[in-house]
Design goal:
single chain, globular
């Protein structure tokens, strides 16, 4: 039998303690999500409603198919910065008229929906997802353009946003703009470069320069409507393809546009019926210990995520610190690489390399479940070739062309983060659990390394180490690295696509796999030179 058998005692004190710790992290996360949902705050949301307008999230809810899920991406962008959490834009994947689309909605309650540096980074990440996965893009536009005080960080790289839209169009990936209000300056190019444009009568205003700027630049007197109103663009300039009566009508037209796209997925669909795992997803809360130095068996996670808890393990007796094998999630075939004991040795690296090659031969997407402290160090392991074997694994990950999805469950440190397909290796999607941590190494180890180097430098100069100062420095560095390693900070930096509740892992993976199947799924036999 290939059905995984759980060995967890859900009635044990250890399991209960793990659940309690995870729930505490989820509660902390929930506070931040509430800030995101509040947008610009009660005052500005009410002002927006008083103008008879829907919020960005209400527009999305109206746009997507009834009772269908919306996979929000990068909701914590800008966390820890001077900007509002969420970066004044809501993005995600939703189903419109049966077609999975990438939806981008400006939040006009946050500084008029203007784009700050984090808005730009989030939008560019969104465009990457649309392009890699061949997803039609629907822009719900209401933006005052760039947040002018931050223009030095927005203007130059911001041009890529418009380049992306035209390249999506050139690749045959549809782009649709529904303009709900102002779309000024650079924002005017969103409808200008979209395939389909819907404007709302007496609401949409699209111009490169508003009346005050035109007056200053040319001396010409004009009002909003004749300069960039919806009726003018529908009847005179031709920028507007459809003239909607109100917001609901604009959404209706947008849905009809998608219905007429004749859009077809080019990737493989599920190969079997979706079968629920044999264990409750609620139990995922109790698997990861709060102390990430304590190992846990990733098979317990796999058993609660894959169809029927059915998993064919590959090389189970070899390189036991990395669990590899084949399964299905919502009927989609996947290969899974999951860290079992944290450290990656030469055997694990070689096993992973072979497994990745096999997945590419069979055009099978790969899922990486992270809990690694990195590749093993030490004289014995260096002499045994850990560098060349780790490089083989990273080579395989770098050149693999089947889609990759990464989930950070626990630790994701050092080059192990790279070998397990971290952000720099372009996984199609990367999500983190609230329990995850990622850095060049653990906080204690990093502080200890800096202390050793500092001591050696002091002694080389003939000085005496101040133990109290050294202890203070270590504590300060540990606190800094600890703060910079947690999921909310990393998510704010856009190093993942969202922090998810462990119980939602199977659902999120299913949505991601379905989105991935919009594009062809093809492996490769073309890898770099493997140093044997």
């Amino acid at each position: 039998m290939t059905v995984l058998r759980s060995k967890i005692d859900t009635s044990s004190e250890e399991f209960s303690a793990n659940v309690e710790a995870m729930n505490a992290k989820l509660a902390e996360l929930d506070l931040e999500f509430r800030k995101v949902l509040d947008g610009g705050g009660e005052k500005y949301v009410q002002r927006h409603r008083d103008r008879g307008k829907l919020t960005a999230r209400e527009r999305i809810e109206l746009l997507i198919d009834e009772d269908s899920p919306f996979l929000e991406l990068c909701p914590l962008a800008a966390y820890g910065s001077q900007f509002t959490v969420g970066a004044s834009v809501v993005v995600g994947i939703g189903v419109v008229e049966g077609t999975e689309c990438l939806i981008v909605a400006n939040d006009p309650t946050v500084k008029g929906g203007t784009s700050n540096p984090w808005t730009l980074r989030k939008t560019l990440r969104t465009n990457d997802i649309a392009r890699q996965n061949r997803l039609p893009v629907i822009s719900l536009v209401e933006s005052g353009g760039a947040d002018l005080p931050t223009q030095k960080e927005v203007f130059v790289p911001g041009g890529r946003m418009f380049r992306d839209l035209t390249q999506l169009s050139a690749e045959g990936i549809p782009t649709v703009a529904l303009v709900f209000g102002n779309s000024t300056a650079g924002g005017a190019y969103i409808p200008g470069m979209s395939d389909h444009v819907v404007m709302i009568s007496d609401r949409s205003k699209v111009f490169l320069g508003g009346p005050p700027l035109v007056k200053m630049a040319t001396g010409e007197e004009s009002d909003d409507e004749e300069l960039g109103g919806a009726a003018m663009h529908a009847r005179i300039s031709g920028l507007g393809d459809y003239l909607a009566a109100d917001e609901q009508d604009a959404v209706r037209i947008g849905r009809r546009i998608v219905a007429r796209l004749n859009w077809r997925k080019q990737g493989p669909g599920p190969v079997a019926e979706s079968v629920e795992p044999r264990y409750s997803p609620d139990e995922l809360l109790g698997i990861v210990p709060p102390d990430l130095k304590v190992p846990f068996d990733p098979r317990e996670v796999i058993a609660r995520v894959v169809d029927d808890s059915d998993f064919d393990e590959f090389k189970p007796e070899y390189g036991a610190s990395l669990c590899t094998g084949w399964a299905r999630i919502h009927g989609y075939p996947v290969g899974i690489l999951a860290n079992a004991q944290g450290v990656l040795f030469s055997q694990e690296a070689q096993k992973a390399t072979q497994f990745i090659q096999l997945a590419n031969r069979s055009d099978t997407p790969l899922i990486f479940l992270h809990n690694t402290t990195g590749y093993m160090v030490g004289k014995e392991y260096e002499q045994g070739g850990i560098i060349k074997h780790g490089s083989m694994m990273i080579n395989a990950v770098s050149n693999s062309t089947v889609p990759h999805i990464s989930i950070l469950m626990g630790a994701s440190y050092g080059a192990g983060h790279y070998g397990m397909c971290g952000r720099a290796y372009d996984p199609r999607f990367l999500f983190a659990w609230p329990s995850a941590k990622s850095a060049v190494m653990g906080a204690q180890q990093l502080a200890g390394v800096i202390s050793i180097v500092s001591r050696a430098a002091t002694e080389a100069r003939g000085g005496t180490v101040d133990e109290e100062a050294d202890a203070g420095m270590r504590a300060m560095i540990e606190a800094q690295i600890e703060a910079e390693s947690v999921p909310m900070f990393l998510s704010g930096m856009l190093y993942d696509d969202g922090v998810i509740d462990p119980r939602d892992t199977r659902t999120v993976l299913g949505q991601a796999l379905s989105a991935i199947a919009s594009a062809p799924v093809e492996g490769t036999a073309n890898f770099g030179v493997f140093r044997m």
